[in-house]
Amino acid sequence: MNNLIAALNPVALSFGGLEIRWYGVIIAAGILIAMTLATKEADKKGLDPDFIVDMMFWTIPIGIIGARIYYILFELDYYLQNPGEIIQIWNGGIAIYGALIAGILTIYWYTKRKGISFALILDILAPAVLIAQSIGRWGNFMNQEAHGGEVSRAFLEKLFLPEFIIEQMNINGIYYHPTFLYESLWSLAGFVLILFLRRKEQLLRVGEVMFTYVMWYSFGRFFIEGMRTDSLYLFGPIRVSQALSILLFLGAMGVWAYRRRNNYPPDPFYTNITRKEA
């Protein structure tokens, strides 16, 4: 039964010397779906959906650049020796935390410039970002990257995975943990959870949808990152994403507790929208 299916081609289309890779197609699909969901939610909250589109015009490219810079900074010795590969983003080598940091800074700048609630926008975007992350991990799958350590084929079969996933995890005759799949499913579960909680308006205050996202994603990422073989390291055995996951989880939980303890008032802009809808 081994090797019934060949590894999938990471190139979706070729035109002469130009290649369109599945990695980019999948990332683009995730972004498009996220934007669609975010604009619909913005409309429900009383915002002009075009605000989200205009904001994403800045946030997406800056986020991608941030993801690449983040990755390069922690692999600086390699890229200093191979500067021609710095722009080869189509071969992978972007870090989601870098995209999130750059994206959040951009959103903060844009919302302040437009006089729109930063917390409200993050609440609108949180589940959309999670579904984009869930979809985007399949780009790693097509590139046969972001996988975990060596496992047996029997182990993968016990997970009841389809044959095409099992064989895509066969790299040079060795099978690996499909950590891309673990994170994709974790993000999908978080997306469903946040949609459920967001409908229960009495449970969450403004900003707490975003805190839920941060805690959910960082908690899962900490454990999944520990399984990966391509981690970025701070020093010694300390993995960058694990250290950042701990900080983000504790930070989000701490700010949430502080806001609740001090009966943090509702966001003024959100309150105005609610009154208009009433």
Observed structural traits:
278 residues, 2 domains, three-stranded antiparallel β-sheet, 11 helices, 7 strands, 65% helix, globular
In short:
The protein has 278 residues and is mainly alpha-helical.
Structure explained in plain terms:
This protein has 278 residues and is mainly alpha-helical. The chain has 2 domains: 48-115, no CATH class; 117-277, no CATH class. It has helices spanning 22-44, 49-73, 76-81, 96-114, 118-143, 153-158, 163-168, 179-199, 208-225, 240-261, 268-277; strands spanning 11-15, 18-21, 150-151, 170-171, 174-176, 233-235, 238-239. The chain has a 3-stranded antiparallel beta sheet with strand order 3-5-4. Strands 1-2 form a two-stranded antiparallel sheet. A two-stranded antiparallel sheet has the order 6-7. Strand 4 (170-171) and strand 5 (174-176) form a beta hairpin. The relative contact order is 0.11.
